[in-house]
């Protein structure tokens, strides 16, 4: 008996008991659906994390002032980082192509006409900020070194500020007031969207850091809050981190063995660690979900054993008219694999639907979030192959038992 005839006979035998066949594959359906969903959601989370770090800028390293201990009291040295440090990093670190200082502004009301609001982010930055953050200007321009040196009262705003403050009015050239200080809007940033925690990145106003220090904070100090540096490539980020650390240690006269008064964070390393964590969690959850596949396999074995018992006389008749043991073995194996693969296909479809539903639910609950929908084709093929393996593994014993029946005893079976 040929292979396709064996498949036809197997399908006809399964069709005689549709309800039992459906209940048998339920475990496989649940297992494949759960694995597909877990892998999809895990990869979506990993891609979201990678995308968030990419949105921070191009190969970004962050330099923070570090807390230090003086005479037993812990205090934060506010002057550990200066604009000169930032300029030295940009000029002397070979692996760094750009760097920008950042000076944060606390909560402040922004007023235009009769409208006022409190932006999520008010920052003083340098001329290379957009290059480091990989954030282009949609309309207008950005301030240059001349505006920074003169502490000019100019600013560049995000899309959310345009919508909330200006609505249909063209913002370019308009005057807004920040802490009663007038600023001219000279540019509008491209839309960036929400970050990983749903915060609006476009709710931002950027000003020269010198302007923030002198005109908004009334300070003559040259200290800054953070330095953002961009490495020349992802491959040189480790070199850039080492160069920045060595350069600042020399500038700040950090002696060997002493704790530095700054900290350098490599955002690529953090992204890689988070990717490992999300990958491990996905693997663990998938392994737990795969346990239901074993339950489904046991169900297939049980059903096939019952089928062998019910069809003992049929097997005897087939052997009596010339069917060989290998034909019987192949028929029952085909039945088992068909059950498993049908369950796998249904489970795969349900898994894709569940992944899409979870993605839509997360995006609807998290305002402004953009959780990506990821379906792994290799994972889908692996799931289907695993379903077939489950069918072969758990169907082999019943098939072997059927193929070893004695024809005479099988014909006598009632």
Mean pLDDT across the residues is 80
Could you say which overall geometry the principal axes of the C-alpha atoms support?
elongated
Binned strand content: 15-25%
Rg estimate, integer Å: 33 Å
What is the string of helix and strand elements? Answer: HHEEEHEEEEHEHEHEEEHEHEHHHHH
Number of strands: 14
- Domain module tally: 2
What is the straight-line distance between the termini? Answer: 26 Å
Largest sheet: 12 strands, mixed
Q: From the helix content, strand content and strand pairing, which structural class follows?
A: alpha+beta
Oligomeric state, counting identical vs distinct chains: single chain
What's the topology here?
Layout: H1 3-15, H2 18-55, E1 60-65, E2 67-70, E3 73-76, H3 83-92, E4 96-104, E5 110-112, E6 115-117, E7 121-125, H4 129-133, E8 137-140, H5 145-149, E9 154-157, H6 159-166, E10 175-178, E11 181-189, E12 204-208, H7 209-216, E13 226-231, H8 237-251, E14 262-266, H9 267-310, H10 312-320, H11 325-365, H12 377-403, H13 407-412
Parallel strand pairs: 7-12, 9-11
Antiparallel strand pairs: 1-13, 1-14, 2-3, 4-7, 4-13, 5-6, 5-10, 8-11, 9-12, 10-11
Helix pairs in contact: 1-11, 2-9, 2-11, 2-12, 3-8, 9-11, 9-12, 11-12
Q: How does this structure look, described?
A:
By secondary structure, this protein is α+β, with helices and mostly antiparallel strands. It folds into two domains: 3-54 and 272-412, no CATH class; 67-260, no CATH class. 55% of the residues lie in helices and 17% in strands. It has 13 helices and 14 strands. The strands form two sheets. Strands 1, 4, 5, 6, 7, 8, 9, 10, 11, 12, 13 and 14 form a twelve-stranded mixed beta sheet that branches. Strands 2-3 form a two-stranded antiparallel ribbon. β5 (110-112) and β6 (115-117) form a beta hairpin. α1 (3-15) packs across α11 (325-365), α2 (18-55) runs antiparallel to α9 and α2 (18-55) crosses α11 (325-365). The two termini are 26 Å apart. The relative contact order is 0.19. The model is unreliable at 68-78 (pLDDT under 50).
